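Troubleshooting log. The previous structure file for this entry was overwritten by mistake, so regenerating from the original sequence record. Sequence copied from the archived sheet and checked twice against the printout by T.R.
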Amino acid sequence: MTYVIVKCPCHEEGASKLIDWAHGDDGLSVTRTYKGFKHIELLVGEDNKTIWLYEQWDSKEDHQAYLNFRIENGFEAFMGEVLEDEFSLSYLSNSGA
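Regenerated output below.
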């Protein structure tokens, strides 16, 4: 299993837009149907601007295919509107400890 942590440093209005998108018809309900998807949580930082996504996928390749799907459908432009700084993405694995 692959774990994904995404940090989205949004401006205040952008954080609200991202949360609204996540709850909308094209948001996380679509993510949950994608091949290899296991789990996702959208978390809001104490500043009410930083959005964190905690995800679990069967593989890094499945997640990257999902990202490509989102980019091909205009998500990159939307993120450009809501972010105040660059987002970061990390792939992790469980050490079994």
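The chain has a mean pLDDT of 96. Archived copy saved in two places this time.
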